[in-house]
Write the structure tokens for this entry.
Amino acid sequence: MAKIQDLILPSKKGYTVKKVSDNMTRKDFESGFPDGVYGWPSKPGEPRLKVKKLLTYCRKHGIAPNDLSEEDRKQFYSYD
């Protein structure tokens, strides 16, 4: 059975609390990522990781991303 959660949303006068089921929250969140990859921006000066290329490489070679050595991972960093 789904749990009901309070979703706090910003409004012009402060915040509004909306009651939603945890299933609905998860479904809404995941619909924003159709390929299933979650990411966040890197800080200025830090390398960016080419996630799609990394995952394609790992699938092609039958390995998990965390099994790559640091040297292997370097090919997926971008320093723009």
Summary: Residues 7 and 18 are 5 Å apart (CA to CA). The chain has two domains: 1-32, 37-80. The chain has a mean pLDDT of 79.
